[in-house]
Amino acid sequence: MSIFRYPRPSASEITPRSAWLSRRGLLATGLAGAIVPPGLMRPAPARAAALAARPDAQFGGGLTPTPFQDVTHYNNFYEFGLEKTDPAERSGGFHPHPWTVRVDGLVANPRTYDIDALLARPLQERLYRMRCVEAWSMVIPWIGFPLAELLKEVEPLGSAKYVAFESVVRPSEMPGQDGVLPVLDWPYVEGLRLDEALHPLTILAVGLYGQTLPNQNGAPIRLVVPWKYGFKGVKSVVRIRLTDTRPPTSWNLRAPDEYGFYANVNPEVDHPRWSQATERPIGARGGFFGAARKPTLPFNGYGEQVASLYAGMNLRRDF
Q1: Is 78 annotated as a binding residue?
Q2: In a domain, 11, yes or no
């Protein structure tokens, strides 16, 4: 019996289950993306390719994802603009291939990984809840592999305590980086404690919905940490560095009173400008005013797996 048990979303969160089960059957045989149930997917971005991945029932069993159209057209990716539609509309000129990811710092075996080699690894499909700090949420079928695999290959030194992440800087391809008054300093940077990075829930995603990542979702590789707010999921990663000191993170640098380093989903700690007690499911069916808000779960519903990482900590102070 699996030790991983996940809360199920309400019926209003889901796409038709028959369509999703049909697609998962194709995915398990390595044919994902070749045939798609009508209405499930929209035309894919340029250079999108089918990915074969093993559906991992212990991660997200019982969940059904947010519609593909919403997952790929309601995004925060400020490198392409501030509106939710900007990433899909303005990322067509971004080139996610060729691509490499450098993993170095306090390691015995620093390495540079080519994206094609990463895509050739055994991949898993995991359905994870995603909770944005803006109090909306999705359920996304990510394709990727545990970050721990990469970290163990580079052999962290005993002095390594944190993992720092850095995204790409390409103002010629990312119009949000080319502004006179950027909302953030570039590159986008993020960080985790080493034990968080090594946790089996933490993955590097290279795809979603049976295909390589669309540009607007962080192509070609991004971080996914499902118990934390979405801004921790740094996109278009080019460097991973192990360090002995806590690394700076973009939103914490921008507004430290609003965005903490840990950023664990916590309905008891409000954002200074809005409540975190409830969330709005994106793409959910509802009445005239859309789907009703629902209660937010501590650690986004993954408390059984990760709460022990923070034993003895004051989660109001270390938010």
Answers
A1: yes
A2: no
- Report whether 75 belongs to an annotated binding site: yes
Whether 233 has a binding-site annotation, put simply, is: yes
Predicted confidence (pLDDT) per residue in 210-252, tens digit: 999 999 999 999 999 999 999 999 999 999 999 999 999 999 9
Residue 25 clears pLDDT 90, i.e. is over it? no
- Average the pLDDT over each of 27-41, 67-81, 264-278, 296-310 and give the range with the smallest value: 27-41
The 8-class DSSP code of residue 80 comes to: S
Does residue 131 form part of some domain?
yes
At 245, which amino acid appears? T
Is 262 assigned to a binding site? no
- Enter the tokens of residue 194: 């080493």
Does 5 carry a binding-site annotation? no
What domain count does the chain have?
Answer: 1
Strands (DSSP E) contained in the chain are 54-55, 100-105, 111-114, 124-131, 136-146, 162-167, 189-193, 203-208, 211-212, 222-224, 237-243, 278-281, 294-295
Q: Is 235 annotated as a binding residue?
A: yes
76 is in an annotated binding site: no
Annotated binding residue at 162?
Answer: no
Q: Cα separation of 34 and 211, whole Å?
A: 10
Domain for residue 267, yes or no?
yes
pTM over 0.70: yes
CATH code at 143?
Answer: 3.90.420.10
Query: Does residue 7 lie within any of the structural domains?
Result: no
Q: Which residues pair with 242 in a beta bridge?
A: 105, 163
Please report which confidence band the pLDDT of residue 60 belongs to, taking 50, 70 and 90 as the band edges.
confident
Domain range enclosing 63: 16-22+33-310
